[in-house]
Amino acid sequence: MTPAARLSAAIEVIGTLLAERRPAADVLKDWGRSHRFAGSGDRAALASLVYDALRRRASAAWIMGEESPRGLVLGMLKVARGLDVAAIATLCDGSRFAPAPLSEAEHARLAQASLDDAPAHVRGDYPEWLDTPLAAVFGEGRAEEGAALAERAPLDLRVNSLKGDVDKASELISHLSPEPGRWSPLALRIALEADGKAPPLTSEPAYLKGLVEIQDEGSQIAAILAAPPRGGQVLDLCAGGGGKTLELAALMDGAGQLYAYDDDLRRLAPIHERVQRAGAHNVQVRSPRGKMDVLEDLEDRMDLVLVDAPCTGTGTWRRNPDAKWRMRPGALAERMKEQALILDTAARYVKPGGRLAYVTCSLLDEENVDQVRGFLDRHPGYRLVPPAEMVLALGERGMTLRAAALERPEGLLLTPRRTATDGFFISLMVRGDQAG
Ligand SMILES: C[S@@+](CC[C@H](N)C(=O)[O-])C[C@H]1O[C@@H](n2cnc3c(N)ncnc32)[C@H](O)[C@@H]1O
Q1: Based on CB atoms within 10 Å of each CB, which residue in 88, 119, 257, 291 is the most buried?
Q2: Which residues are catalytic?
Q3: Which residues contact 51 (CB under 8 A, 6 or more apart)?
Q4: CA distance 276 to 273
Q5: Domain parsing of the chain, residue ranges
Q6: What ligand 1 atom has the least distance to the C-alpha of 244?
Q7: Ligand 1 midpoint to CA 398 (Å)
Q8: Would the CATH topology of 155-214 be identical to that of 217-431?
Q9: Taking the model in full, what pTM does it have?
Q10: What pLDDT digit, counting tens, does each position of 147-200 carry?
Q11: ipTM beyond cut 0.95
C-alpha cells in the first residue's frame, strides 16, 4: 500500500470506530481480515496512524475545526507527525486509493491554525469532563501532563533476575539497542521504530527463556517500592496476568512464599504459564472457586499485601489512547467503590507490623490519595510510610525518583512527563501491632 492509501484506510477505520463506538483494536482486526492483501507492514503503519489520531484527537479536531474522521487524520499529521501543509497536500492528491485533495478551508487551517489559544483539555488531549479532576492534581501543568500522555510509549522490559542479569539480557537483544532504565535497575528500554511499530519481542529467545518480560518501568518501580521481604509471606491480591507477581518473586529471590490471587479467573489464567517460564518457584496461585474463600488461611499472616487495584487506567493513556475517550464518569465512580472494598479486604491478610502497598495506574486523586485517606480513616491501626522512606528501596536512585515524581504525604505519583514512565501511584502503609 502507498502512504496515501494507508491514510485513506486510517480515515475509514476511524470512521467505523467512532460510528460504532467499538475498540480500535477490534476494528483494526476486522479491517485486516477484509483486506488480506495488506502485509504486516501495512497493518502496523495503519494501526500507528489510527492510534496517533486517537492520541491527539482533541488537538487534531481543534486544528481542523471539525471532528470528522478525515479531520482527525489530517490534523494528526500536523500535530503529531509535524507534516506541513504542502506535504499533506502531496499525500492527499485524489489519485486512486489516496484521500481527496485538500479543500481550501482545510488548506487554510493546516497552514494557519494553532493550539496556542486552545483550552487545557485540547492542548492536553483529554476528555473535557476530566479537566477539573486533573486540575486538582496538576494545576496549571495539566495540559503538559496530558500532552506527555498523548505521546507514544516506549517498549520497556524487565530483566528476570531469577534467570540472569541485565548484561546477559542486553547482549542477547543487542540488535534491539536496549537502553538501561532510569530508575529501575531491572529495566531495559527499547525505542519504537519511526512508524511506532514495536519489534516482535515475544518471539525473541531471551523472552521465550524467561530472561525478559514486557513491563513498563513505572510498574517495575511500584513492585520495587512495595519491597517484598526475602523469605517473607506476600500476597498479590489483584494479580491479574501476573506482571507484578513475577517481579515480586524475583525480588524475593525465589525464597519465602508469594500467593497470587485475582477474582477474575480468566485474567489470572496466563499467570500459570508465565510463572513456569520465569522459573518463579515460590509462587502459589490461588484461583477463585465460586463462593469459597480461598484465602482464608492467610488472614493476619502476610508480611506484605500488594493491592494493584482495578482503576480507570488514566496513567496508561499512551498505550490505550482509545480508552481515554471512551472513559465515562460512571466508570470512575465504579472503580472508586471497588478500590475501597478491595483495600478493606486486603487489610484482613496483613499481619501486625506487616505492610499494605496500594498501587494504581491512575492519575486521579479520587482513586489515589482519597482512597488512602479513606482507608486510614476506616483502619486507624495503620500508618503511612512517608514517601521519603519508601523510595529507599531504590537506593540512590530513589532520591532522584522522589524529586521527579509528584509527592503527596499519601504516596508518589509517577507520570510520563515527570518520570518518563506510565502513570502510577504508589502508597505504602504499615499495620501497627494492635488490631487493624
Ligand atoms: C491493575 S489490574 C492487575 C494487574 C496485575 N497486577 C499486573 O501487574 O499485571 C487489577 C486486577 O484486579 C482484579 N480485581 C478486581 N476486583 C478484584 C477483587 N475484588 N479481588 C481481587 N482482584 C480483583 C481485576 O480482575 C484485575 O485483574
Answers
A1: 88
A2: 361
A3: 24, 152, 196, 321, 322
A4: 5
A5: 3-115, 119-150, 155-214, 217-431
A6: 8
A7: 27
A8: no
A9: 0.96
A10: 999 999 999 999 999 999 999 999 999 999 999 999 999 999 998 877 777 889
A11: yes
